[in-house]
Amino acid sequence: MSHLSLLDINIFAILACFIFISAVAIGQRLIMQYKAKKALQSEIAKRDNFAFGINYACQIAVIALTGAYIFSDIYEYILSEHYALALLTPMVAFSFILLGQYIHRKWILNRFNEEKAIMKQNICAALVDSGMLLGNTILVLGIFHWLHPQGVSDLLVATMSFIVLQAVFAIDSKLREMRFAKANQGASLQQNFNLANTSIGIRYAGKTIGLSLALFAGLQSAPYHGATIVENINSVMMHCGVMWALLYITSFSLIHWALPKVNVGLEVDHQDNIGVACIEFAVFSTMGYLLINIFSV
After folding, report:
1. Angle value at C-alpha 259, between 256 and 260, nearest 5 degrees
2. Cα–Cα 20 to 30 A to 238, which of 34, 187, 215, 280?
3. Do the Cβ atoms of 48 and 124 come closer than 8 Å?
4. Integer Cα distance of 200 and 195 in angstroms
């Protein structure tokens, strides 16, 4: 019978990764306490603010996911005594995620205050914000997976690619708003978020996560041309654009086949049909993941 040795499971690496994730999580808890006017326990335990709990849970998941994903690179940098890169990598990763969150809140959804709505126990707002946060995390990890930055030139390419893909997020969101307005007599999707329609939040989060997975697939299939910015940006735009189109073609087709006689827009927008919204969430997420698996071969 074979047994795992301490060397096989690498106890030190596991412990170091756990300490790193815990330290970041504690820092995030302090920030959340400050934003909630030091009432984190009260919001979750006493007021039963489910929206706040959903959003906080997503933030913890993002910290753990990001820390676990980039820790192997950090560990390699430490072993090779590249301490500057070991420190810079997590800082850049979390900075990109926070920047993406800021862009989404202040620019893409500039007419909707997620933080204020979450404090008012708006679950739709929590789902929209959490989906965006998780989507940005997947996008940032996709960029790191694509180029594994080794210096300033790689970080510059990563920054430019991040900006371009944030523009894709913005265009996709605006197209969704236009379709919503067309189907609902000019109503604003962002204003409807304030009505706490949970199904709309589920659908928005699902499409955001699905798009981020499709962009991850595009980055995975795109060749990396070293430090040449223009060639890399063109490569990112072409490959991610194709994945974007494939995501919607496959997702809409599957939804039509799965629900051939159901008016999905009517059920989600007016009936607050959580079941139909969950089907949309599942389809977009799985189609995005399918693209990653297809183009990882």
Report:
1. 65
2. 280
3. no
4. 10
Distance CA 191, CA 240 (A): 30
| Helix (H/G/I), strand (E/B), else coil: 150 | coil
E strand segments, 130-205: none
C-alpha to C-alpha distances, 280 to 58, 115, 200, 259, nearest whole angstrom: 20, 25, 10, 10
Check if the beta carbon of residue 57 is closer than 8 Å to that of residue 49.
no
**Cα four-point dihedral sign 134, 217, 102, 226:** positive
Look at phi and psi of residue 262 and say left if phi exceeds 0, alpha if psi is from -120 to 50, else beta: beta
Q: What three-state secondary structure class fits 221?
A: helix
What does the block give as tokens for 81? Answer: 């005594």
Contact 184, 269 (CB under 8 A): yes
Token couple for 86: 């070991």
Strand, helix or coil at 1?
Answer: coil
- Neighbour-count burial for 116-139, b at 16+ CB within 10 Å, e otherwise: ebbbebbbbbbbbbbbbbbbbbbb
Give exposure, 77-89, as e/b (b: 16+ Cβ within 10 Å). beeeebeebbebb
124, 200 Cβ separation under 8 angstroms: yes
Per-residue pLDDT tens digits of the chain, which is 297 residues long: 445 444 444 666 667 667 777 777 777 777 766 665 556 555 565 666 788 888 888 988 998 888 888 887 777 777 777 777 778 888 888 899 999 999 999 999 998 988 889 888 899 999 999 999 999 999 999 998 898 777 778 888 889 999 999 999 999 999 999 999 988 888 899 988 988 889 999 999 999 999 999 999 999 999 988 878 899 999 999 999 999 999 999 999 999 898 888 888 888 888 888 999 999 999 999 999 999 998 865
Phi, psi (deg, nearest 5) at residue 10: 55, 70
Local structure of residue 149 (DSSP, 8 states) = -
